[in-house]
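Appendix B, Record 12. Input sequence as logged:
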Amino acid sequence: MSWTIVDYAAVHTPALRQLYWQARRQAFTWLDAAGFQLSDFDTVTQGETVLVALQQKVPVGFIAWWPPDNFIHSLFVAPDVAGRGAGTALLRAALARMGRPATLKCLQQNAPAVAFYRARGWTIREEGKSAEGAYFLLSLE
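Logged structural output:
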């Protein structure tokens, strides 16, 4: 499937708030979803560079990173399009704009996400703990 990757614009906000809320509810089953808020999208992307994947002009995913550190904070795709290439397209587009090494943290219990990054050449560099659980720090040279 072909995805259109665009720079984030305010018009995308309502759809991405909903997408982020739904995707976390599906992926982070070990967390209490009652604490997830639609406004969490605004908080986690504040001050970051954000790209959006569109399918027929509708946002179906986003990636957000902090350019000074080449650190990806978020990569989420709508559950109904997961596994169809939107995440890969977003990751490629972001990496084309980022320096190296690029890094990200991925919760260890999110096995599909860990496998996604490892299959694309990311290497586990460290392990740590956060409020959401144990994580891997991954990097791409």
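Residues 4-99 form a domain with the Aminopeptidase fold (CATH 3.40.630.30).
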